[in-house]
Structure to design on (1456 residues):
């Protein structure tokens, strides 16, 4: 029941449940001397908060980020950064009825089996999507690290409820609440959401993530390949059911002559590899996509059972989003940043050695 | 440049290059008292060897498995199992011409960048698919572990060169050299291979993997979720560009009412989750699929450059498969087994504690 | 700058500085179903607090323990236990004068060099003994785990300021504020403390730790041997400069015929091994000793320099203990418990496998 | 039963038993571009071989080192270095009588208990000191890494059989087969060995290890402190029962005014800290000492039991050293080098970041 830490040199550990006292993250390995503030982290966390839009939960957590350690007089010190988000808007009574019921598509049954019947059933406890609020906070620290190397990560919605975005208008992403890069698709997605709300149903989708400015050389074959760690990080997000890099599943239908990216004296001529070759970044943009399943909490009646194995028709009222999209978008960014920050540091160790980087000598 | 180990309690470390002296694996965490022989491991490794079929490399490594440690008088001792496979049929001269050329779709460029220009260019060195021979050997040890718990893993080809298998005839898998569960599809796939050989091109495909008998409770939220570790393991295989679990990318198009698996008093009524909920096995079959890109080594001319950034048209002669399928199939099985063996042991630790399992007392 | 986590299955991560907002620990791997309360943890933490005795700092932190996660309705849930202790009695102004001075025997210089000049100088920041308050809290969770297996750990002072305890009166330990098992020695130690206070100096000593009820079989050769992990845990405590197991350094002077512990049909006939053979617990008591250096903060003038390399005579006023003993005693217990809890779970994994422990089957 | 790997970035995994087919090490994280040959490693391994001296085993393993991977055309490639040493001079028959006997002071009993009765009893199997042959080989790779930074490590015998070396004549170390830095003490030690051989007994001792040229800044608080990892590494060597750094156990008797190392504008004025403050190297020499217990295999009769709990008097014939010293000396050096290489790389990661070290850009 370890398994709540991620990374080797840049390492994130999280704790906390949906309706517990607080959620927290410990971020190890952030180098010293970086400016970092609660405001900076808050900004990222706010991207994940539910907004005043149809289809988003009315649960309005303020999600106030507190830095408890690792930052002194505005600068990181190289020691672990403790981050806390207290749970405030907790309505646990709504979950009382669910105490002994296994909600389909949720982790109720598996948590029950794994933890021998001991679980915080309120809002899914540890399995709640709410856990990701501190991943986003940790990802903000990773963002600060990557900024220093000119590496940026952006995720956006390229499919929702069957509507597929054709365009990649990265400007438009921040002009719509679904983080969609295609205005036409965005409008159709909104319609799908309205339909789903009416039906008491939920929607799945696809999020694409793009990392730019990543230098060639990140990734540690043969197991800690860059795409392997990225996949692990992304697949560890609750609603994600698939990950692909570059051409991904489409590559399965291609021939080598089509899929290979030719190289000219100025660089690669296309990027079906998604910026990674042999587990190592190539210097091109890194492109991944994740499949997001529809939120399992729906108002439509569903067949299920309770602890006593009695069958029943479940209607979930509570406060729920219609889709993990768009709130999963900053979580995807966070996980990619955490992986890249870790691999940046890992490669820097060797790069420094290759250049026989000198240690500072105090005595001169 | 660590990153060559995988797992927590059941832990595999590999070493070796395609044209070096030998490839090896160290398997830690195999419990004592299991029968294990070179023959048992050899049988798995042989599944990965190239066969006398069109489209497969004439490089005929005998791939003789040697156990160096950890097994005594036919039984495992609980100490690390060292496994070695010497390289014998090494024709490095064919690679002399490739010494300073970056083959498109291969890791030549990224290895060059990561390792500061020091790399064993022969046959791709460490980045070669040949490295997987010892993964399969390690996977055989994991298979022995899982057998004791009635857990079986089988992988098979469900798409190749655009041909999609509709059936899941698991008997038929071992009656054809592509490990395809659909006879009709198999015949079409063979045609595709012949075409590709004629054209000097290569093919991608999709492999599905099915784990049966997995008890509920394996997987360690929130980062070492079962699908997260499975994804990492599978994505660390050279040619894999995508992983999905259960409905996978199809789930992105479904509604919650469609995607959720209802539960009756006798069990789940379907399995779109792919046997994992909230990162923990549910007791249902575990189902994953991986996208396999076409082999990058093709005879068709490709644009690329050499170390001096001179452009050239590359025709790769050498000895190459037309597709990573079917030889990747036992590698997929091996990685899934390694992950399951590790998580089986991890959960057993807690299960034992919950039951206050007693230690043997020698003194009585 | 990772390195703030310890353990494999039972895993502790800490964060926080002496004069920061709070100190925290995340405890992963505590099995579900154990009763656990803030009171239980508080009791252990209180053992570490300074008391109304001569030679102990008047800094009177209340050290209120808060459990933020992982416990629900009084029981552990198997999810990570977040523990927080807010810093309240913080007088940072006393440290203002030390901002640019390297205190001899402290980590000021090395932190300055390692972290590129960015450090929280107040009270030693992360290097402060105060960090151990959350180690003790985490150790309390480990204590709960070990209790279920009848394993107990007790540490006590066997030397202080040159006075050596001859007796091992374990009852007396809790009847004196130095946790000394020898009344006569205790009284002499008190005199030594008074002298040191008068002189403005500080004292070193030796703490012995005894683990009883440990079953045979804990420890993972060849690197994670039980004494290796115990040594790491103990050496990671600030003031510790040496660790020995069983006969320890005395064994260096013995012959094999003296040092070997003979075995009879009822058990070992003595215990110079200290309960560990070949890295694995033997079922006997585990006995270790740690050398504790004198507290480096003293009122006597000391030669040192500041950031500008100017020499100066330093007199440290502030609020300081005269010795890390006795407050280090519960820290030693905590670290030993954390190691034992981890190795207990690791061995249980294999023990469960050897017995083919069955998983619960919900469906019957 | 994992636990056979050590290190984070520079990571060593070992396998193999005393009388099995071979012993091996996998060294991950060695940077590319270093010259490395079997001869270089062999030279270190030869230091550990038994010599033609009284008190050393006549078992004369050739201990031929083979590099299987990770080195190409004389240079490391950054990929894992597989190292093998075949066992050749194996006389297992001598151990047949010991199959069911628990030798006092050996790991026979604890291995029996841990591994459920499955163990390779020949020569102690995995618990044999012979396992260290590949630690020394791995340490040779670490030596190559450290050389590039001008870091050197030397260990030597400062006590044997009660004789204590007063001098530290580092030149003399290589002029005597006990690696003793004091000629007078050396001669007395030789007498002690002769006595012990005559008596059929064995001797313990103390080895000191000195690391010079270590830059300030290595070590990762609060758990992976430099002395913590060094202690773990050293305590994982079979015969070691105690570790101390700097003044060590003597510090327990000192006052702060005595133990603290004053600092002048030219550096520290003494080195009782042993080169480490707060878990981080200070730039001074690193000094540690380990207590080595007497070899448990002696010809004198010892009381013990067999598997059936029958008591017996055991006389161990076989081929055995009289002391783990001097053959443990190169093992101590190896472990210290492995730890330093790992921490060198870990700190380089952050140093590189602090200097915003630029990645090479192929495209110009």
């Amino acid at each position: 029941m370890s398994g709540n830490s991620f990374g080797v040199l840049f390492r994130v550990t999280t704790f906390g449940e949906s309706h517990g006292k607080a959620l927290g993250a410990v971020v190890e390995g952030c180098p010293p001397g970086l400016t970092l503030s609660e405001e900076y982290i808050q900004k990222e966390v706010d991207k994940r908060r539910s907004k005043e839009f149809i289809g988003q939960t009315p649960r309005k957590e303020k999600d106030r980020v507190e830095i408890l350690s690792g930052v002194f007089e505005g600068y990181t010190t190289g020691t672990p950064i403790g981050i806390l988000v207290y749970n405030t808007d907790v309505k646990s009574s709504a979950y009382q009825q669910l105490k002994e019921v296994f909600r389909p598509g949720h982790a109720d049954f598996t948590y029950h089996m794994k933890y021998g019947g001991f679980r915080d059933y309120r809002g899914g406890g540890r399995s709640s999507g709410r856990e990701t609020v501190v991943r986003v906070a940790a990802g903000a620290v990773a963002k600060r690290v990557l900024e220093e190397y000119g590496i940026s990560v952006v995720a956006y919605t390229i499919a929702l409820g069957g509507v597929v975005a054709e365009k990649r208008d990265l400007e438009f992403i921040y002009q719509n609440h679904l983080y969609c890069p295609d205005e036409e698709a965005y409008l159709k997605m909104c319609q799908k959401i309205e339909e789903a709300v009416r039906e008491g149903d939920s929607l799945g989708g696809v999020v694409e993530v793009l990392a730019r400015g990543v230098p060639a050389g990140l990734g540690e074959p043969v197991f800690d390949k860059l795409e392997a760690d990225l996949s692990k990080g992304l697949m560890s997000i609750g609603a994600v059911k698939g990950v692909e890099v570059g051409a991904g599943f489409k590559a399965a239908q291609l021939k080598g002559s089509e899929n290979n990216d030719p190289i000219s004296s100025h660089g690669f001529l296309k990027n079906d590899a998604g910026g990674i070759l042999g587990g190592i970044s190539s210097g091109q943009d890194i492109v991944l996509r994740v499949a997001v399943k529809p939120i399992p909490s729906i108002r439509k009646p569903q067949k299920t059972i309770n602890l006593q194995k009695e069958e029943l028709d479940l209607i979930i009222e509570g406060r729920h989003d219609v889709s993990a999209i768009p709130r999963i978008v900053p979580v995807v960014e966070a996980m990619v940043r955490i992986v890249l920050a870790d691999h940046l540091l890992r490669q820097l160790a060797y790069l420094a050695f290759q250049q026989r980087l000198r240690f500072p000598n105090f005595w001169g």
